[in-house]
Write a structure and sequence with these properties.
Layout (H helix, E strand, L loop, with lengths): L8 E5 L5 E5 L5 E4 L2 E4 L9 E3 L5 E5 L3 H5 L11 H10 L7 E5 L5 H9 L5 E6 L2 H14 L5 E5 L2 H4 L6 E6 L8 H7 E11 L2 H14 L1 E7 L6 E2 L6 E2 L9 E7 L4
Parallel strand pairs: 7-8, 7-10, 8-9, 10-11
Antiparallel strand pairs: 1-2, 1-6, 3-4, 5-6, 11-15, 12-15, 13-14
Helix pairs in contact: 3-4
The structure holds S-adenosylmethionine.
């Protein structure tokens, strides 16, 4: 049987109205509005624990998406629905060499660090030491810090150190200001993706990308709606996150 190791994160799933992430420690008391119980010795994945109020809690392993919305936040972050598209449309692989600007709260850095395998690496830039400290803490807590190198610098002015990278991910207020730097750092065929809250930024940055030598550009917005599935009256949830960010992609080509 697959045992849970002390210090590993677990989800205690007692239904949509009662689920928690916590670190496993034998004897740790769990208090919830659905009753109280202690985490036992020799916990195994899939175990069922019963609270003082008779509610069953299933012990399951958190996924990357489970972590994202629980991170400590200092900035806006990428949401799981958008991260999936970023990974697929940049042809991310475990051995990819990736630059990201800025680190923000480290949401994307946590996910990338968990997916990367050496020689794959993430180089994460930010010019705000407070933001980067939180990003580092989140990667330390929920990711694999050995796969991330954090760099503190103003990327508009100083650009990036690395060359021959596969992917540059940009989440900055003025993305057009790093297009030339990204071009220098990418290998031919490499991907630049930038996130923008409004379409004026998208137009300006795409124009700059076109003039710099990027091709095969596309811009997408991901709309996701959860559904309630029940015996009678299945329907979409009333609430959804209407707009997060536009994501625009392009590939480095040679100048004609
Ligand atoms: C919205 S956050 C990035 C969030 C990140 N994508 C995440 O998933 O957590 C934008 C970050 O860009 C940083 N930033 C803004 N201007 C910058 C610059 N010139 N150089 C480096 N970082 C910059 C900010 O300090 C901020 O932390």
């Amino acid at each position: 049987m697959d045992k849970v190791r002390e210090g590993e994160y677990i989800i205690l799933w007692g239904g949509p109205d009662a689920n928690f992430i916590t670190k496993y420690k034998p004897g740790k008391p769990i208090h919830s509005h659905r009753g109280v119980f202690n985490l036992p010795e020799n916990l195994e994945w899939g175990d069922i624990l019963v609270s003082s109020k008779g509610r069953k809690f299933y012990v399951i392993k958190p996924s990357n998406a489970d972590f994202v919305l629980r991170l400590k936040r200092k900035t806006n972050i990428f949401y799981p629905k958008d991260m999936g598209i970023v990974l697929l449309y940049t042809d991310f692989k475990p051995h990819s060499k990736v630059i990201e600007a800025g680190s923000g709260s480290g949401a994307m850095a946590v996910i990338l660090s968990n997916l990367l395998v050496r020689p794959g690496r993430l180089f994460s830039y930010d010019n705000n030491p407070t933001h980067q400290r939180v990003a580092k803490e989140n990667v330390q807590n929920f990711g694999k810090p050995e796969n991330v190198i954090f760099r503190l610098r103003d990327v508009y002015v100083c650009g990036f150190i690395e060359r021959d990278v596969d992917i540059v991910i940009v989440d900055l207020p003025e993305p057009w200001r790093v297009v030339k730097h990204a071009y220098k750092s990418l290998k031919y065929g490499g991907f630049l993706v930038f996130a923008s809250p409004n379409i004026e930024q998208v137009k300006e940055t795409r124009k700059c990308m076109y003039e710099t030598g990027f091709v095969a550009m596309r811009t997408v917005e991901v709309l996701m709606r959860d559904w309630q599935i029940r015996d009678v009256g299945c329907r979409p949830e009333h609430e959804m996150r209407g707009h997060t960010l536009f994501y625009s992609f392009g590939r480095k080509a040679k100048h004609p």
